[in-house]
Amino acid sequence: MAVAPAQNANAQLVQRLVSQPVARVNGTVLTQKDLLREMYTIFPYARTHNGFPKAMEADIRSGALKMIEFEELVYQEALRRKMTIPASRLDRAVAEFQKQFSTPQEFQVYLATEMNGSAEKLRTDIRRSLLIDQLLKLEVADRSVVTPAETRQYFDRNPDRFRNPESYSFQTISILPPDKASPAQLKEAARRAADALRQAKATKGFTDFGLLAEKVSDDDYRVNMGDHKNVEVSKLPPSVSRTILNMQPGQVSELIQVDQAYCIVRLNSHNPAGMQNFEQLKDSLHKQLEKNKTEQLRSALDRKLRAAAKVEEL
What we know:
The chain is an alpha+beta fold. The chain has eleven helices and nine strands. The protein has two domains: 150 residues, Porin chaperone SurA, peptide-binding domain (Triger factor/SurA peptide-binding fold, Orthogonal Bundle), CATH 1.10.4030; 107 residues, Chitinase A, domain 3 (Roll). The strands form three sheets. Strands 5-4-7-6 form a four-stranded antiparallel beta sheet, with helices on both faces. The chain has a three-stranded antiparallel beta sheet with strand order 2-1-9. The protein is elongated.
């Protein structure tokens, strides 16, 4: 069946748009299609949420553009070093890629729409990805390893980072009158606060108080059972601080008035100042140190490759 002229024109327009150059890296053109693919990698929800959020789109686009430029620089560096991918490894990678498709027909549709029907182009693209991974492993992954001894050394040399300030864990119920409340509205808020206090005093634990907070509290913490987790003493409002200092865990305060609002506090725990336990945090600290080192090495590699390249954003 012949394609209608309007349909053909639309297809040609889409093709021109996705083929539009967005950057050149040492003369190699990167297109809008490359950029969009990376933008969707950064923010995959765009495929099911009618595109990218307007407030975030510029930052997503900028980050995606820097990433595709970086990958092209890494690929060109791998070629300069004459790095190779064994045919057997490439064959395995192609076979693994095909497994993501439910049927052979689905794979053929992908070849037709994304690879212009060329299986050889697919192999070329997968080879490119493997070369990028190979060079990044050599220059970044293999060099970003942090040993257990280095993790311990970092902990010992940075005690201030692992010193917990004095804090309190507590729940709240807040009764907030409307802005510019009338005398009647203020009276109603006071009545609600007194009723909430009566019910709060009758609760038997964290869950009871939390369920009441979900039901009657006006502050945003109600969605989390009124729970404030750990709050440093220095960050507590003075009226709350004065009250909570004289409370025992499990105790419910009297009404605390802050301007025209009312607050009820249930103290869950008092956490004295002290050092964190290395054994408890060593795994997460080790991962964070390796992540930091990886980011530093990637950034350094990016700067090094850009310094010797001609990168043009179009």
